[in-house]
Amino acid sequence: MSFCVKCGRDCEESLDGLCIDCWLDGRKLTSLPHHVDLRVCTNCGEYEFGDRWLRREKAVAVQDAAADALAVIRDAVPVSVSTQAVEQDPHVYSVTVRTTCDVMGYEAEDEATTIVRIKNTVCRRCSRQLGSYYEAILQIRTGSGRLSEEDREETLVMVENSVARQAATNRSLFITKMELVTGGVDVYLSSMSLGKSLARELADFYCAETKESPKLVGQTTDGQDMYRITYLVRLPEYHVGDVVLFQGHHCKLTRVNGNGGRLMDLMDFRERAVRRADMSDIRVYEKAEDLREATVVSRSGSEIQVLHPDNYSTVDLRVPEDADIGDSVRVVAIDDVLYFVP
Ligand SMILES: [Zn+2]
Ligand SMILES: [Zn+2]
Q: For residues 33 and 261, what is the distance between their CA atoms, to the nearest angstrom?
């Protein structure tokens, strides 16, 4: 038990010899600087907080900026904070921060006010983007010389989705520009690591071949060599569904992924796996979209009779026992003999 040196009251605990009431009397628990500058990017509209740029409503950003600048004295522990902003002009807000503090187990309130000034600037990402900054080029090509429009669209959607996903946690990642060039498309990227990850992603998805070539483009101000890297992704000619030739067998390509692919032999409908290293031996025999349709006349077990799409003669085709046969089937001619394509 002690007593307060100011009011003489007995008190269980004292701070600097004072009871809690005398100690709190007239004391500021919190303080704010005279003003706080809040930087906003005029290009993307994001606000700077510490070393991060964040998307916020203006009113929220202004109040957060004030709350972030709040200083609390050592003996007080803030329990809750509320803020209120009053616009003075579109770039100047008066913000009051009310804080409930715990002082030796007692709850005490205090408030402080500051001026938040919104300063226009351009964030680093936007200034790079506006300045066409890039560190890597992803070159998407194909083995057959010409990238089809479907392949181009499909890969670009993949690239854009992947960049959006990665940029959600790292805002320095962006696509600088895309350029259609003879034989494919070039994607200019803000970072080498982004180029590398996209090249790997495409390579895994398509079993594509990749090659990277660095190019010295100059030196940084502190004398370090500066490189740009070109990541070449050569998409294979084949697609799932194509009839392909592999080690002398005519097969339907049924699956492609990062580990390789699967083929179904058109002679006996047996499936086999192909290792990724062997995928480059696959040659396209007939593209899926070029396969012919033949009208089914009848079926008996593992045989069907179809009309030959060229001369309408009746032809017997072997089909797998469990094949689901509709009114027409896809067929391919190999050495003038027609085969069923599952
Ligand atoms: Zn007292
Ligand atoms: Zn910006």
A: 64
Q: Is the ipTM of this complex over 0.85?
A: no
Q: Which ligand is nearest to the CA of 13?
A: 1
Give the range of the structural domain holding residue 193, as residue numbers without chain letter: 132-235
Q: Which of 151, 145, 140, 153 is nearest to 189 (CA)?
A: 140
| Host H or E run for residue 149 | helix 149-167
On whether both 13 and 111 belong to a single domain, the answer is yes
Q: Are residues 200 and 97 in the same domain?
A: no
Give the closest ligand to the alpha carbon of residue 7.
1
Which ligand has the shortest distance to the CA of 16? 1
CA distances from 112 to 7, 30, 32, 83, 329 (A): 28, 6, 6, 10, 79
Residues 176 and 155 placed together within one structural domain of the fold: yes
Question: Which residues are placed with Cβ below 5 angstroms of ligand 2, an ion?
Answer: 41, 43-44, 123, 126
User: Is 211 contained in some domain?
Assistant: yes
Ligand nearest to C-alpha 6: 1
Tell me, in angstroms, the distance from the centre of ligand 2 to residue 55's CA.
10
Q: What is the pLDDT of residues 184-208, one digit of tens each?
A: 999 999 999 999 999 999 999 888 9
Distance from the CA of 123 to the center of ligand 2, in angstroms?
4
**Residues 281-327: tens digit of each pLDDT:** 999 999 999 999 999 998 888 899 999 998 889 999 999 888 888 88
- How many CB atoms within 10 Å of residue 291? 17
138-147 pLDDT, tens per residue?
Answer: 999 987 778 8
Indicate which ligand has the atom closest to the C-alpha of 129: 2
